[in-house]
Write a structure and sequence with these properties.
Layout: E1 6-14, H1 29-41, E2 47-48, E3 72-74, E4 77-86, E5 90-98, H2 104-110, H3 118-125, H4 133-146
Amino acid sequence: MSPGDLLWVDVFIPKKSRLWHDDIKQAALWLGEIWVAALRSISIDCIMNTQSLLRSPLTDLVCFAGKAPGEVFINDQKIIGISQRRSNKGTRYQCALALKWNPAHLINVFLNTQIENVSEKIQSCGTEVSCTGDEALQAFLEQLTTH
């Protein structure tokens, strides 16, 4: 991926916030709901994963290959990955929205792994959205302020 292929949005929630959740499995669901509402407001049909974390051998190499609660998908392909960095002060969520999906560099790096059909699996784990980063960010901020 190249600079500009991802829109990065960080959100910090202090422990005293009404949005704070002790259960790490549930903690990002509210954020995923905001992303889904934001993207749907700009005509991007997507869904949020509400199930437990889904891992595979590929997820150790490519984060977009996994499915975590709160992450957002189009046709079972990830468009938004969310990571959490938790401390005694709160949680920083790091969101990555795929504006473009061209994982050729990942495919080249991991081509010799023991994972069967690794090229196809990497290519199919993500997809891109049909909007600009500015459009997505504006829609996200509008939903965030009304949540």
